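Record 1 of the preview.
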Amino acid sequence: MAQEAHVVSGEVFTAVKSWLVVEAPKANEAVQFYKAAFGAEELNRVNDPKRKAEQELPLIRSAELKIGSSIFVVSDLSDDSPVKSGVSGVFCLETEAVEAAVAKAVGAGAVSDDQVVEGEGACCGGRAGKVKDPYGSVWLICSPANKCGGVAA
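->
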């Protein structure tokens, strides 16, 4: 499948990557959580060169993770982070196996906010569950929009 480009003022954008910044030094734990909870694949990692002492855990400047065809970045909050305070995000994962995905995330350490809901209470009119990861981000786990009457992306 070819990657679609979006042109704005002469610039070509081919993707948007979400970036999660977590309290230092917990980015490595977050990466391991996303692998266990959501089957994320780690594509790349850059450690902060300022923390080389053996007694210190290296801070992660960026770790690129992939879930399905989407890529997001995780990093430790540091003095030179792009943000200066804790940031959490909201992500939507699409799957037909909503209940199993929620259970897997909870088993890896996430907290389920409520039961899997069906119909109008869900994000797309199908089935949806919601979990909060140990780092403050909310993950909506939904049946695909095109399967439940929503508009396909």
